[in-house]
Amino acid sequence: MSQSEARIALNEFAAKISEEHLGPLWDNLGHMITLKPKHEVIPYLWKWQTIRNYLLEAGPLLALGRESERRVIYLQNPSLLKDGKIGYSTNTLYVGVQLLLPGEVAPSHRHSQAAIRFIIEGDGGAYTTVDGEKTYMERGDLVLTPPWTWHDHGHEGTEPVFWMDGLDVGLVKTLTGSFFEPYHENKYPLSGPPDGSVARYASGVRAISERKRKGYPSPLINYKWSNIKQALEGLERLDPDPYDGYAVDYINPTTGGSADARIGTTMQRLTPGMHTKAHRHVHSAVYHVLEGSGYTVIEGQKFEWEQGDFFVVPPWLWHEHVNTGTGTVHLFSVNDRPVMEILGLEQEEELRDNNGQQEVARTFEPARLSK
Ligand SMILES: [Fe+2]
Ligand SMILES: [Fe+2]
Fold first, then answer.
1. pLDDT for 142-169, tens place per residue?
2. How many Å separate Cα 271 from the centre of its chain?
3. Does the pTM exceed 0.85?
């Protein structure tokens, strides 16, 4: 049998077994097991002023209650909007921005998705309660609402408050583990004083009453910006990480692992003029610019950012960060690294060519959907 006759015979064979819903691995192996991570997720950037203005417009349009649950505008990666998909930020991560107006309550509920909040703007009068612990939220704070904990948000201040929500919506959907339950009242009953966990775990120490506590979820629900900033100032006395600058991971004080078991949270500080080397890794990340201005080169494309902007670093794409301003840059990010590490999937590679920096081929421009 010649080579082409063999191929025809194999194709006929494949067609025959497909009638029984059987497939030949020899034709599909390369699709199932790729040489490198393959995906459709594109890097993208959203401007803070756009999101903020639309949220303020949504304010009077949407009343908060059981119908709406939350007033959130979320980042829809255009590459994840096809085939009826509703577009998260990456395949695993969802990021939205939530607005709460003075006097409002976002009613109590719980879900199996992990959630983190990162406070962008507010007067300190807004709070979250997690299983009855109330914590006030100030700019730069990271607040955890671990999977299946009751949480509601309220606002006792006078100015609108905006925060970033990060949830592992895509991951939980893929793993078909989604559950949701509303609480039968708007507010879950409070237990203990506000910020009890902050008092027990402030500054890397723990109250002796907590000696026996270990495991997930993290007993600390609010990682105050003032503490994180102090840690980063301390790090500046050491050598920066070549790829991330001066950077810290938020951790669970009882395990040393990621603060949220599934969503990784990181804060990076770039000093003026700092230009990191490029690397790529399996985990994906969504960044929020807390302070400063600069750009990130992702796979040869330059993404210019300033305070408040958001951008996506998809899996296995080269990226490096640059501070072009005169002040310090603080970049907060959520990622799926804890999951990749637990599953043994995380890998990282450094760019060796061109002194570890990419050639910039083009600059990102947001694309409007034409209707
Ligand atoms: Fe929630
Ligand atoms: Fe990175």
1. 999 999 999 999 999 999 999 999 999 9
2. 23
3. yes
